[in-house]
Amino acid sequence: MTLFWVASIILIALSGVLVAWPFIKRKENNDEALRDELNKALYKDRLTELEVEDEEGLMENQQELIADLKQSLLDDIPTENQTAAQSNMNPWLVIVPSMLLTVVLSYGLYYKFGAAEEMMEWQQVNENLPALSKKLMSPEAAALSEDEMQDLSLALRTRLHYQPDDATGWLLLGRIALANRAVDTAIGSMDKAYRLKADDPDIMLGYAQALMLSQDDIDQDKARSLLGKLIQQNYMDVRVFSLLAFDAYERKDFPAAIRYWSIMQQMIGPEDERYEMLGRSIENAKKQLGDSSTVGTSVAVTIDLGQALGQGITAQPGAALIVSVHNADGSPVPVAAARYPLGTFPRTVVLDDSNSMMQGQKMSQLDDFIVRVRIDNDGNVATKQGDWFGESKPAKMGQSVSVIVDGQYQ
Questions:
Q1: Domain count along the chain
Q2: Which of 27, 96, 371, 392 is the most exposed place for a label (fewest CB within 10 A)?
Q3: What percent of the chain stands above pLDDT 90?
Q4: What are its GO biological-process terms (predicted)?
Q5: Both 16 and 58 in a single domain?
Q6: How confident is the model over 61-68, as a mean pLDDT?
Q7: Rounded Cα gap, residues 59 and 237, in angstroms
Q8: Cα 69 to chain centroid, rounded
Q9: Which pairs with CB-CB distance under 8 Å and at least 24 residues apart come from 350-356?
Q10: Which domain does 261 fall in, by range?
């Protein structure tokens, strides 16, 4: 709003200069002097003519004509009162009222026919952009009201007009479009964000969400590819598995849908209100498969570092995270295992029957199990010296477990 006031004051000042300029630069009114000079010139010319006529004998009353000519010259000279009245006129009597009229008309007409209220609202929306953006970025984005969505959309479009390379801005605009079910806008915004910052997990997830709403098979395939990359990067977000489960169910891949919903259950825990809803979805998918079908079970493992590791670990370039599932009796032979990049902690990984290691035995067939985690410092499974490790307490199949890595092989 400051810019508006500055610009309006500058324009009014320029208008005032234009009004006052003729008075500031005006010169003395020389019309009377010029007329007097002209009369004198005409007088002299006429005298010359009279002399010529007198010499030619064409004139009898030369002196009378000369007297009349002088009287005419005197009658045409302006009085001192007229000249003083004109010269004593105060220019500010014109400048001040003109300036006041300009100011009153300018702001009055703008208030009546302009967009003063809309401008103030726009400025207020721009000021609220950080708070609204933070609110939208949270998982509880549904808490935004319809008016807040409109305000945020306006502010984002304004910012993106001046900062088209703002990937976060395009991501937020895409999320607003997703909330409003504006599929084309959502895909377009997310695509721009992805092109600007393709390695951002939040942008990848948002782009996948938008593509999943498309009716184009190519878009949906791209969405599955993005979600697969997120899982490979250990981006354990409930929304990733929710999208995969919904997509699998729509494609009638019920075992995959059940697996993803089961993973979600393990991630959120029974205390979450969504747990029972996921259970109903699983039961519905099982009914679609029939009673004779068997569905694999997954295990979600949350891994964190113990205090002995301080602020972190110093690992060699080939370091890896190895997670294995064993019988509850502590058998050294893993039933299932997976290897991941070291990454950051805390983190959650999920193992299922696809990670089974033993011929003829699936991980889902275990009743009780334990999970062992090892940070392989040199990337060589055969060597253990200097590696860190941790082990979970026994758990029932279907339960999620936590492992603290706080031991070290000597």
A1: 3
A2: 27
A3: 18
A4: cytochrome complex assembly
A5: yes
A6: 68
A7: 123
A8: 88
A9: 350/236, 350/263, 350/266, 350/298, 350/299, 350/300, 350/301, 351/298, 351/299, 351/301, 351/323, 351/325, 352/259, 352/263, 352/296, 352/297, 352/298, 352/299, 353/296, 353/297, 354/296, 355/325
A10: 234-295
